[in-house]
Amino acid sequence: MRRVYVVAHPEAQHHVNDLVGGWYDSELTSTGHQQAALVASHLRGLIPVGESVAVHSSDLKRTVQTAAHIAPMLGVDAQARRSLREKSYGVAEGRPQAWLDERFIPPPGRRGPYGA
Fold first, then answer.
1. What is the DSSP string of 31-68?
2. Residue 104 has what pLDDT?
3. Which of 1, 55, 71, 112 has the largest count of CB atoms under 10 Å?
């Protein structure tokens, strides 16, 4: 049986600066690096030594940095792929989150910027 572990990148600069992420290429914060190291250690405990493993990430800095903590812990090289990027927010990327929130139009029957 094959297992897939999906890891979201930890804290990145755009989070602490309250900027829209998407394809905006921000780096992990020092806290994000610490969190990525913890994730790597946890995965090492879940995945038996010798089991065939591959680590893939998008090509954005924050995900490459996250994978750089995980891959060596598992004894492999990480593969960065543009095709694994998260959703693009277009012209909103890198702008203040408030800028996007002010322009967000919820689908009919939903309230707030994220349907809450």
1. HHHHHHHHHHHHHHHHSPTTS---EEE-SSHHHHHHHH
2. 87
3. 55
Task: Provide the residue range defining the domain that includes 20.
Answer: 13-103
Kindly compute the dihedral angle of the four CA atoms of residues 82, 9, 76, 49, in this order, to the nearest 10 degrees. -140
80 assigned to some structural domain: yes
Domain with residue 29: its CATH number is 3.40.50.1240
- The alpha carbon of 99 is separated from its chain's Cα centroid by a whole number of angstroms, namely 22
Instruction: Report the candidate in 105, 95, 102 with the shortest Cα–Cα distance to residue 18.
Output: 95
As given in the structure block, the two tokens for residue 40 are 């790597």
In whole angstroms, give the CA distance from residue 81 to residue 20: 21
The label of the residue with tokens 């610490």 reads: 34
**pLDDT one digit per residue (tens) for the chain, 116 residues:** 789 999 999 999 999 999 999 999 999 999 999 999 999 999 999 999 989 999 999 999 999 999 999 999 999 999 999 999 999 999 999 999 999 999 988 888 766 666 55
Q: Please list, residue by residue across 63-91, b when 16 or more beta carbons sit within 10 angstroms of its beta carbon and e when fewer do.
A: bbbbbbbbbebbeeebebeeeeeeeeeee
